[in-house]
Amino acid sequence: MGGLQAQAPTLGPLRPVLVFACGNPSRGDDALGPALLERLAARQAEGRFVDCDLLTDFQLQVEHALDLIGRREVIFVDAAASGPEPCAFTPVVPEPALTYTTHAMSPGGVLRVLAQIHPDPPPPAWLLAIRGYAFDLGQPLSPGALANLDAALTMLETHLA
Amino acid sequence: MTTSLETARHPETLKRVCIEPVTRVEGHGKVTLLLDEDNHIKQARLHIVEFRGFEKFIQGRPYWELPVLVQRLCGICPVSHHLAAAKATDQLVGVDSLTPTAEKVRRLMHYGQTLQSHALHFFHLSSPDLLFGFDDAVRHRNIVGVIQDHPQIATQGVLLRKYGQEVIRVTAGKRIHGTGAIPGGVNKAVSPEERDYLLKDIGQMIQWAQEAVGLMRRIFLDNADYHQQFGRVDANTLGLIRPDGAFELYHGGLRARAPDGATIFDYIDYRDYERHLREEVKSWSYMKFPFIAELGPELGWYRVGPLARVNNCDRFDTPLAEAERQRFVAAGEGRPQQAALAFHWARLVELLYCAEAIETLLHDPDIGGTELQVHGDMRPKGIGVVEAPRGTLFHHYEIDGDGLVTRANLIVSTTNNNQAMNASIRQVASQYLSGRELTEPLLNQIEVAIRAYDPCLSCATHAVGKMPLELSLVDTAGEVLDRLTQTPRGEVRR
């Protein structure tokens, strides 16, 4: 398992940019992150942004720190229940205090765990927070969230280009 | 048993203490403590303020979608829903017995899920409380604090989590949204390369799990009087068991025991669960209150999960876990352990069991077999039960002639523990709340009791910007006497 070598410094070239989307595809606008990743995967199928790794999960957890080791850059994508419309693109730094509100972690909390368990400095990281409005089980993306998704994809493509 | 959770004759005259929502558990939970005029606690209520609509989400869907569909109910233990639904759909397609390969691959997946879930709970959620004490500063009492003070433990926790996830990936085909279990079997076996990949690190995982149990045992016994009394409630226990009484997580009969260990029923077919269990509805919560039918709602509520399972079983079939179970039982001095904090100890005994059981299965040639699926004649009803990390999980489906779900009933682990959690909250609050002022230590004491059960209140929605924590004290006239707010960054403000 790669994890058991996690404490060794990274040698050689950095690993590709990681786009890590969080969210539950069946919880309304919580699907914004996975939906954006699907669109990015479609771009990759067309030959664009092929040097990015794409990863998704319901929630961020401590072991995801291992996925960040040796990355050139990490971009977390998540739905936001409040905040700017259509989206916000902000830097993520290791958090001095963990947002320990659920079983899940914040992007900054994961970076902090990485910094504690691995000798490499954490990679540059960003959070693309896409504004959502409704998070009910079994519901599709709301019209407002769909519009925000388009804008967020444009912003991400610009950043990755 | 504690049966006097709601003793007030006129609840409308009581003061209310509200915590909304609870930190480090899922979703929008709220704790209300109802006080009488003398500031004594008369009621404890852990509210679920969101209607999740699981059954509505499932109704009308084709049965073959269920094992994949239900994973979206919960981002914390999707594999448990996957396997419970798969067991129910086995029955829908007329299959009562899987091939050895299918059953063992499913077990491997289940043990991987339980291992990673238990590792998260101990190393990430509960170890800060246990290592630093409940009165430690909030900003220090989290996983970052653990890493600062105990870097080796934190790293082991991360890597145990990762190992469990890798077991899931190998057996389910993907990290998330896996499709490994299908009606009547599995869609893939474990290849020799995959087996060797997992075998490479399992010895290390067993060693770390064993060390974690030892650490937990020492923490518990070093302050045994305190740990034995904190959140202690005498409860019935419920869980799956093997025919010989051995510990079981994937498939078996239901055993229930009384608080003194006396058997209520033993090894009953879980497909008859509706004869033995009832669900009560209360006006103040969307979460139901299950109870053992023959005892009634006042006496029949029960506890599930690690503490219930380790109390309930007669033995483990792996040597290291069995040795730890015997130490656990000895600490109970002839009675089942009833302390809320004994959950943590039992959880780590199970973590060790899972690591050992994974190793045993990885050496079993059946996991690489080629007979993956069996078929039968369709049936209108299927009921699947597994022991999820947090406790017994029931999936019950009925379908029409087109294979579409007409009825679904899910009893999730946290629902099974509903009344027991309320009882522990009441016990802790009765002991530590006094006067008219709320304190951060009091807030955390209540949270510690809830966290011992590792509840999962609202599955998988986690969008950025949620989860403040609020504790307020309101008098009988509705006036707020005191209020504490804890931000997502752990800052507490009055």
Features:
heterodimer, A: 161 residues, alpha/beta, five-stranded mixed sheet, globular, B: 494 residues, six-stranded antiparallel sheet
Characterise this structure.
The complex is a heterodimer of chains A (161) and B (494). Chain A has a 5-stranded mixed β-sheet with strand order 2-1-3-5-4. Helix content of chain A is 27%, strand content 20%. The longest helix of chain A is centred in the C-terminal third of the chain and has 18 residues, at 143-160. Chain A is built from 3 helices and 5 strands; from the N terminus they run E-H-E-E-E-H-E-H. Residues 97-101 of chain A have low confidence and may be disordered. Chain A starts with 16 loop residues before the first strand and ends with a helix. Chain A has 161 residues and is an alpha/beta fold. In chain A, helix 1 crosses helix 3. Helix content of chain B is 41%, strand content 18%. Chain B has a 6-stranded antiparallel β-sheet, with helices on one face. A 4-stranded mixed β-sheet of chain B has the order 8-7-6-11. In chain B, strands 12-13-14 form a 3-stranded antiparallel β-sheet. In chain B, a hairpin with a 5-residue loop joins strand 2 and strand 3 (41-48). The radius of gyration of chain B is 22 Å and the shape is globular. Classes of the chains: A alpha/beta (161), B alpha+beta (494).
Mean pLDDT of chain B: 84
Overall radius of gyration of chain B: 22 Å
Main sheet properties of chain B: 6 strands, antiparallel
Number of helices of chain A: 3
Number of strands of chain A: 5
Based on CA inertia axes, which overall geometry of chain B fits?
globular
Assign a percent range to the helix content of chain A. 25-40%
Query: Which two chains form the greatest contact, residue counts included?
Result: A-B, 51 and 60 residues
Number of strands of chain B: 17
Percent of residues in β-strands of chain A: 15-25%
* Uncertain stretches of 5 or more adjacent residues of chain B: 1-8, 17-28, 459-463, 465-469
* Spatial arrangement of strands, main beta sheet of chain B: 3-2-1-15-16-17
Helical segment tally of chain B?
16
Strand content of chain B: 15-25%
Shape of chain A: globular
Terminal CA distance of chain A reads 33 Å
